[in-house]
Amino acid sequence: VVKAEAYDGELLPRFDAARHEVRAFGRREHLGAALGAEPAEIEAELTRNKRYGHSFSLAILDLDGIESAVDRLGQAAGDEALREVSRILQKNTRAIDAGFRISADDFAIVMPGTSVAGAKIVADRCSAHLKEARMFDGTLTAAWGIVEADDETAEGLNTRALAALNADRAAQRG
């Protein structure tokens, strides 16, 4: 199911694996938005991690090429590409995973019970499907920041995920 709602006059698709749909949501200025998940979901997973030793991984996806493609092809093409990205993420994650659009070209996936190695398998699979989709004539690229939660705060988890994302993007650029 693909749904989109207007937020300040724009369609902002949101991937939500638990509901298997793309939904709209606006930018929020709290830490949960930066992490890519509702603060309660991140905090709940961190609590489970601490209390029961249940691991989870956070993967942040940064898409490069959307803004320049929208400039060339128009907003409708960008919206359709974001819906396709959401479909790819949905097809390649589990029902218990939670995915969110966190900015114009960034998504995040919270994967309960998943090691960093397992999360990298999911990311590699999603990246392969994104490449196969050849959005914007193959100019859309993906970088991932993937971390497994430790005994840490949400802020610490966010910092590590963003550092991993920056390292992946730098490695791609050579």
What would your notes on this structure say?
With 174 residues, the protein is an alpha+beta fold. It is built from six helices and eight strands. It has helices at 31-35, 39-52, 66-73, 75-91, 116-133, 154-173; strands at 6-7, 10-11, 15-16, 21-22, 56-64, 98-103, 106-112, 141-148. The strands form three sheets. A four-stranded antiparallel beta sheet has the order 6-7-5-8, with helices on both faces. Strands 1-2 form a two-stranded antiparallel sheet. A hairpin with a 2-residue loop joins strand 6 and strand 7 (106-112). The termini are far apart.
Question: What key attributes describe this structure?
Answer:
four-stranded antiparallel beta sheet, two-stranded antiparallel ribbon, single chain, 47% helix, elongated, 6 helices, alpha+beta, 174 residues
Brief overview:
This protein is α+β, with helices and mostly antiparallel strands and 174 residues long.
Helix and strand topology:
Elements: E1 6-7, E2 10-11, E3 15-16, E4 21-22, H1 31-35, H2 39-52, E5 56-64, H3 66-73, H4 75-91, E6 98-103, E7 106-112, H5 116-133, E8 141-148, H6 154-173
Antiparallel strand pairs: 1-2, 3-4, 5-7, 5-8, 6-7
